[in-house]
């Protein structure tokens, strides 16, 4: 599964990345891999969290 998170590129993403990873893991998902991209002429940061639900 993929979860997409968008934010301004000029803001720090590190704390958001940690919070989202922890929330997904605490909710029963596998620890997510994260892909970070910058879009729209470097004004939007796009984080993609890839994980699976543990059964």
Biggest beta sheet summary = 3 strands, antiparallel
Cross-sheet strand order for the largest sheet? 1-3-2
Overall 3D form? elongated
Multimeric state: single chain
C-alpha-based Rg, rounded: 12 Å
User: Helicity range of the residues?
Assistant: 10-25%
Mean pLDDT: 94
Element order: H for helix, E for strand: EHEE
Number of DSSP E strands? 3
Report the portion of residues in β strands. 35-45%
Beginning-to-end CA distance, first to last residue: 14 Å
Give a short overview.
The protein is of the alpha+beta class and 55 residues long. It has one helix at 14-26; strands at 2-8, 33-39, 44-50.
List keywords for this structure.
single chain, 55 residues, alpha+beta, three-stranded antiparallel β-sheet, 24% helix
Characterization of this structure:
- The structure is a single chain.
- This protein has 55 residues and is of the alpha+beta class.
- The protein has one domain (2-50).
- It contains one helix and three strands, in the order E-H-E-E.
- The protein has one helix at residues 14-26, and strands at 2-8, 33-39, 44-50.
- A three-stranded antiparallel beta sheet has the order 1-3-2, covered by helices on one side.
- A hairpin with a 4-residue loop joins strand 2 and strand 3.
- The longest helix has 13 residues, at 14-26.
